[in-house]
Amino acid sequence: DNNDQNSPYVSKIDLEFISYGATQDTTGLHSKLVGVLQVSDINKNKKFTIRTKQDVQGFDDLKETTFYTHLLIKQMANKAA
């Protein structure tokens, strides 16, 4: 199989993150991520808006923000799949 990337018969999938926001308060960390999933091929071109959020109760260590942000991105990818 030689799948040429320029072939109109190849399905193309693109996930773009368009918005991210996070706040911390006395109850924990609250994050939201919004993305657009675009699926296209010779017959269709569809866009879907995907939203996901995360609430981490008891969050108090800013060093863990990256860890929880990565989990949020993985959650978005699972929704897209």
How would you portray this structure in words?
The longest helix is centred in the C-terminal third of the chain and has 16 residues, at 65-80. The chain has one domain (1-57). The protein has one helix spanning 65-80; strands spanning 12-25, 28-40, 45-57. It is 20% helix and 49% strand. The chain is an alpha+beta fold and 81 residues long.
Per-chain topology:
Layout: E1 12-25, E2 28-40, E3 45-57, H1 65-80
Antiparallel strand pairs: 1-2, 2-3
Radius of gyration: 17 Å
Total beta strands: 3
User: Strand count, sense and closure of the main sheet?
Assistant: 3 strands, antiparallel
What structural class is derived from the secondary structure elements? Answer: alpha+beta
What's the number of structural domains?
1
| N-to-C SSE string, H for helix and E for strand | EEEH
Structure summary:
With 81 residues, this protein is α+β, with helices and mostly antiparallel strands.
Any descriptors?
81 residues, alpha+beta, three-stranded antiparallel β-sheet
